[in-house]
């Protein structure tokens, strides 16, 4: 189960549907015996502390207490692998006591150029486009090395989607061409100017 910025505290409690006269289980109960990914952690509609305070005891004891609409409390298993993914510093989001309850912290670095090329090849195959290494090399030289731009794992997919959309709109055959990527880069890596003309 994957949840992102739409997560609220309400999603972590039993919810009663008066129209169907049924109770809906919270997300953590639905993901029992599986995985639950909190994507983009720290950008939810709830404060990270609220979420962590709600789960700090269940993470330790491997069971949770839920309240039925009647007011009765029930004990349920809390047996899933919970994953948090974030671009923020974990120490800025949670305290040391909570981090202790997350046994593994894995930093995922930017891809190497070789991995970046393999990602392009894989994404090209997925959308039915012939992979051209010379075009990726042009992209790297002109728009990454020269611009001192960091490689990100989402870039091959996103840029190829831009090329696909451009070809579809212009009714052109889908293919990897230098000028197609030059166009895609202009819209994808747009500079945002702050007051005073400073670029961010």
* SSE run: EEEHEHEEEHHHHHH
Secondary-structure content class: alpha/beta
CATH-derived topology of the largest domain: Rossmann fold
Mean pLDDT, to the nearest integer, reads 88
Tell me the total number of β-strands. 7
What is the number of domains? Answer: 2
Name the CATH superfamily assignment of the largest domain. P-loop containing nucleotide triphosphate hydrolases
CATH architecture of the largest domain: 3-Layer(aba) Sandwich
Intertermini distance: 34 Å
Number of helices: 8
Question: Which radius of gyration do the C-alpha atoms yield?
Answer: 23 Å
Percentage of helical residues? 40-55%
Question: What is the level 1 CATH name of the largest domain?
Answer: Alpha Beta
Strand ordering within the main sheet: 1-4-7
What are the segments in which pLDDT stays under 50 over at least 5 consecutive residues? none
Largest sheet: 3 strands, parallel
The proportion of residues in beta strands is 5-15%
What would you say this structure looks like, in words?
The longest helix is centred in the last third of the chain and has 16 residues, at 155-170. The strands form 3 sheets. A 3-stranded parallel sheet has the order 1-4-7, with no helix packed on it. By secondary structure, it is an alpha/beta fold. The mean pLDDT is 88. It has helices at 27-30, 48-61, 90-93, 96-100, 113-126, 133-145, 155-170, 178-188, and strands at 2-3, 15-17, 22-24, 35-38, 63-67, 73-77, 81-84. It has 2 domains: 2-100, P-loop containing nucleotide triphosphate hydrolases (Rossmann fold), CATH 3.40.50.300; 113-188, no CATH class.
């Amino acid at each position: 189960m994957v949840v992102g910025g739409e997560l609220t505290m309400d999603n972590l409690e039993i919810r009663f549907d008066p129209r169907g006269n049924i109770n809906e289980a919270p997300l953590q109960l639905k993901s029992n015996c599986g995985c639950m990914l909190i994507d983009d952690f720290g950008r939810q509609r709830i404060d990270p502390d609220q979420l962590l305070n709600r789960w700090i005891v269940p993470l330790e004891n491997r069971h949770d207490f839920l309240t039925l609409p009647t007011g009765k409390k029930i004990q349920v298993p809390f047996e899933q692998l919970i994953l948090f993914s974030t671009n923020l510093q974990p120490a800025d989001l949670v305290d040391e006591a909570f981090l202790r309850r997350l046994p593994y912290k894995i930093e995922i670095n930017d891809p190497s150029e070789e991995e970046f090329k393999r990602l392009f090849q894989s994404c090209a195959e997925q959308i039915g486009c012939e992979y051209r290494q010379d075009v990726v090399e042009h992209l790297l030289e002109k728009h990454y090395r020269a611009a001192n731009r960091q490689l990100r794992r989402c870039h091959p997919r996103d840029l190829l989607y831009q090329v696909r959309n451009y070809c579809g709109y212009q009714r052109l055959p889908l293919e990897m061409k230098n000028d197609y990527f030059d166009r895609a880069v202009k819209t994808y890596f747009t500079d945002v100017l702050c007051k005073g003309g400073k670029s961010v």
